[in-house]
Design a protein that fits this description.
Layout lengths: L2 E5 L2 E4 L4 E8 L8 E6 L6 E6 L6 E3 L7 E6 L4 E6 L8 E7 L12 E6 L1
Parallel strand pairs: 2-10
Antiparallel strand pairs: 1-3, 3-8, 4-5, 4-9, 5-6, 7-8, 9-10
């Protein structure tokens, strides 16, 4: 059974940066397309950024394009999300999982990101 564990969230002022990490225990996800998602209060979970199994291809939502960078380190069985120029509307719980279109893994507890003015 795979367990996804997100970390690195916190409280940050608008314009600041955070780096989220996602570690997978129980199964190596090398070669899988992975992604970051987020759920803001009262909203559905939405796609934020994705990375191919090779790590050579990435894609972003409109909200993340130009500000967020997704990366992976298969040796550490981990995926990362570097978030820069954070805005109030980036406040949400962030999750990692397989990219949309693939059977999702059990969702982790997520990492709370709160952006203050």
């Amino acid at each position: 059974q795979v367990q996804l564990v997100e970390s690195g969230g916190g409280l940050v002022q608008a314009g600041g940066s955070l780096r989220l990490s996602c570690a997978a225990a129980g199964r190596v996800f090398s070669g899988w397309d992975m992604a970051w998602f987020r759920r803001a209060p009262g909203n559905e979970r939405e796609f934020v950024a994705g990375i191919s199994g090779s790590g050579r291809s990435t894609d972003y939502s409109n909200s993340g394009e130009g500000r967020f960078v997704i990366s992976r380190d298969d040796a550490k069985n981990s995926v990362y999300l570097q978030m820069n120029s954070l805005k109030l509307e980036d406040t949400a719980v962030y999750y990692c999982n397989r990219k949309p279109g693939y059977p999702p893994l059990p969702w982790g507890q997520g990492a709370q990101v709160t952006v203050s003015s």
